[in-house]
Amino acid sequence: MATEQDLLARITQTPGVCSGRPCIRGMRIRVSDILEMLAAGESQATILTDFPDLEADDIRASLLYAA
Predict the structure, then answer these.
(1) E-assigned strands of 1-67?
(2) What CA–CA distances, in Å, run from 14 to 18, 20, 35?
(3) CA distance 23 to 36
(4) Can you give the pTM of this predicted structure?
(5) Long-range contacts of range 16-22, CB-CB < 8 Å, 24 or more positions apart?
(6) What is the pLDDT at residue 55?
(7) Cα(47)–Cα(7) distance, rounded to whole angstroms?
(8) What is the CB neighbour count within 10 angstroms for residue 3?
(9) Could you give the C-alpha distances from 20 to 24, 49, 66, in angstroms and in order?
(10) Residue 18 CA: distances (Å) to CA of 5, 36, 38, 40, 50
(11) What is the DSSP secondary-structure string of 6-24?
(12) Which one-letter DSSP state was computed for residue 28?
């Protein structure tokens, strides 16, 4: 399993990409979008199916970042 440091390295903030908001690995998938889906009751499996470029560690990284 990935360490906390490895997980947090998946979170990027780049000016001009999603208005500089935290994203997953430079993609235009915001951490806040993942957190909102989880809060709405979406399962990890559903999120990974809907966003095939995401990995399970990306979801864990989002949760860790929020914490």
Answers:
(1) 11-12, 23-24
(2) 8, 5, 19
(3) 13
(4) 0.93
(5) 22/65
(6) 97
(7) 18
(8) 8
(9) 12, 26, 16
(10) 23, 16, 20, 22, 19
(11) HHHTTEE--TTSGGG--EE
(12) S
Per residue in 10-65, pLDDT (tens digit) is: 999 999 899 999 999 999 999 999 999 999 999 999 999 999 999 999 999 999 99
AA letter at 55: E
Strand partners, 33: none
For helices 56-66 and 31-39, the axis angle rounded to 10 degrees is 90
Token pair in block for residue 19: 């208005």
